[in-house]
Amino acid sequence: MVKYDDIYKEYSGVIELKYKDFKIVNKKIYITNKTFLDKKKGLIVFYAPWCKHCNTMGDDYSELAIIYKNIFPLGAVNIEDINNDNDLLSSIAKVKSYPTIKTIGKNGLLKNYDTKFNKDDIIYYISLIN
After folding, report:
1. Domain spans in the chain, listed from the N-terminal domain onward
2. Are 75 and 33 contacting, i.e. CB atoms less than 8 angstroms apart?
3. C-alpha 86: how far from its chain's center?
4. Average pLDDT in the 51-74 region?
5. Rounded mean pLDDT of the chain?
6. 3 pLDDT exceeds 90?
7. Beta strand pairing status for 15-17 and 74-78?
8. Residue 85: HSE in the Cβ half-sphere, 13 Å Cα cutoff
């Protein structure tokens, strides 16, 4: 299998998450990463590094992560990172297409993000939550 690198680098502002950053209880996924729990909100994109649309939205998502860094955390899960069991996490989260965005709900529960994946709609969503 070809190894794909993460789209989001350390300087992007996007927090690259691994399976260990979550807990699974009764087939529900909860985030345990401190940054998200401290804020009690955030967005997480499940992406495949080979996905053209994931790469296209990457720059906008990174820009938003920098703008909202201390207000609203943005995370990402590389589903190709099998060394960290991210493929299993993707399966449990029922990710069927890429990119898939999840929101952080009450108690860190991941929920479906049912808005469009463009920059303006994400900004609008963040403004409603804050």
Report:
1. 11-129
2. yes
3. 12
4. 94
5. 92
6. no
7. parallel
8. 10
For the stretch 8-42, pLDDT in tens is 988 889 999 999 999 999 999 999 999 999 999 99
Tokens for 70? 């201390």
Selected from 3.40.30.10, 2.40.10.340, 1.10.10.1100, 3.30.1360.70, the CATH number assigned to the domain covering 11-129 reads 3.40.30.10
Six token digits for residue 15? 């927090």
- For the chain, the three-class secondary structure string (H helix, E strand, C coil) is CCCCCCCCCHHHCCEEECHHHEEEECCEEEECCHHHHHHCCCEEEEECCCCHHHHHHHHHHHHHHHHCCCCCCEEEEECCCHHHCHHHHHHHCCCCCCCEEEEECHHHEEEECCCCCCHHHHHHHHHHHC
| 50 touches 118 (CB < 8 A) | no
pTM of the full predicted structure?
Answer: 0.92
Question: What does the pLDDT look like over 113-122, one tens digit per residue?
Answer: 988 888 999 9
